[in-house]
TrEMBL record:
PROSITE patterns: HTH_ARAC_FAMILY_2 (PS01124). InterPro entries: Homeodomain-like_sf, HTH_AraC. PANTHER family: ARAC-FAMILY TRANSCRIPTIONAL REGULATOR, TRANSCRIPTIONAL REGULATORY PROTEIN. It comes from Flavobacterium johnsoniae (Cytophaga johnsonae). This is AraC family transcriptional regulator. Pfam families: HTH_18 (PF12833). Gene3D superfamilies: Homeodomain-like (1.10.10.60). Residues 181-290 form the HTH araC/xylS-type domain. GO terms for molecular function: DNA-binding transcription factor activity; sequence-specific DNA binding. Coiled coil: none annotated. It comes from the Bacteria. Keywords: DNA-binding, Transcription, Transcription regulation.
Length: 290
């Protein structure tokens, strides 16, 4: 028997995931409420057929038709279903569960989950049939007592991942070439891990290149050289852009006061936040409020 659940219930709590490290389910019905824009504690692969608006990081992505979506614990997102009907399948899992299969790289380094990517694939009818069949098999196996079920689940997840990687040009995939590439990747990952801001009472702690260098146990000059060499932009530019993007998200997706948003981003006084935001965007924070 297939397990059919409401997407909201899955987003609000997955007890099986904490116990087993994975959960697979079919989604059907109408989503009338927008899931909260936040970061999850798990990885997610989802196929669905509907018209949707996905708020991913600081972007809004409209989809219409069948898509395959990859979500990770670093990038915040929410999913608004525009269609009157929604149908699909999803699998959520922890990195520890998948790494038990002896994967050599972390999921953070995977082309499908990496920072800065757009993890949404439009599927052809043939691709939809094949990916759907994998999810159906996973749901069926999930209900069995097969002793090697976890290994089988990991194989299915990896098969979906590899089928998706085949949809992208190989030049989009990369491995770290040197120490500069590696330290830059660690910096970008640490930067993303500071967000989203989930409480207005605990201000952002890592705000300068020195803060990040200390957390990464490297000299700030080494960090700055590496980041500039790999990305072409200074470390401060990455930090500034991410703070501004988070400020925009909080202004658009929360009802926090502007002073609370400024404080959560590390600005002691509202005037400091207003001046910082205006200098970098050319407008005041209040202009982003609906």
């Amino acid at each position: 028997m297939k397990e059919v659940v409401n997407c909201q219930a899955i987003e609000l709590g997955i007890s099986d995931l904490k116990l087993k490290g994975f959960k697979v389910y079919e989604i059907t019905g109408d989503l009338s409420k927008i899931p909260t824009y936040n970061r999850r504690d798990y990885y997610k692969i989802c196929i669905n057929t509907s018209k949707s608006l996905i708020h991913y990081a600081d972007r809004g992505i409209e989809t219409d038709g069948t898509i395959l979506f990859f979500g990770n614990p670093i990038i915040p997102y929410s999913w608004e279903n525009i269609s009157t009907e929604f149908h699909g399948y999803a699998c959520v899992f922890t990195e520890e569960f998948l790494k038990a299969g002896d994967r050599s790289e972390t999921l953070h380094e995977s082309p499908l989950f990496k920072i800065g990517g757009t993890p949404i694939f439009n599927l052809s009818p043939e691709q939809k049939v094949f990916i759907d069949s994998l999810f159906v098999k996973m749901i069926e196996e999930q209900a069995t007592d097969y002793v090697f079920k976890d290994d089988l689940m990991r194989n299915y997840i990896n098969l979906i991942i590899h089928e998706s990687m085949k949809m992208q040009p190989s030049e989009n995939f990369f491995k770290h070439k040197n120490a500069s590439s590696r330290i830059t990747s660690l910096f970008l990952e640490l930067l993303e891990r500071q967000f989203p801001i989930e409480t207005k009472n605990e201000p952002l702690t890592l705000k300068t290149p020195q803060d990040y260098a200390q957390s990464l146990a490297v000299h700030v000059n080494h960090l700055n050289r590496s980041v500039k060499e790999v990305t072409g932009k200074p470390t401060t530019a990455h930090i500034t852009e991410r703070i501004i993007n988070e400020a925009k998200a909080l202004l658009q997706h929360t009802d926090w006061s502007i002073s609370d948003i400024g404080y959560s981003l590390g600005f002691e006084y509202p005037s400091y936040f207003n001046n910082y935001f205006k200098r970098l965007t050319g407008t005041v924070p209040k202009s982003l409020r609906m």
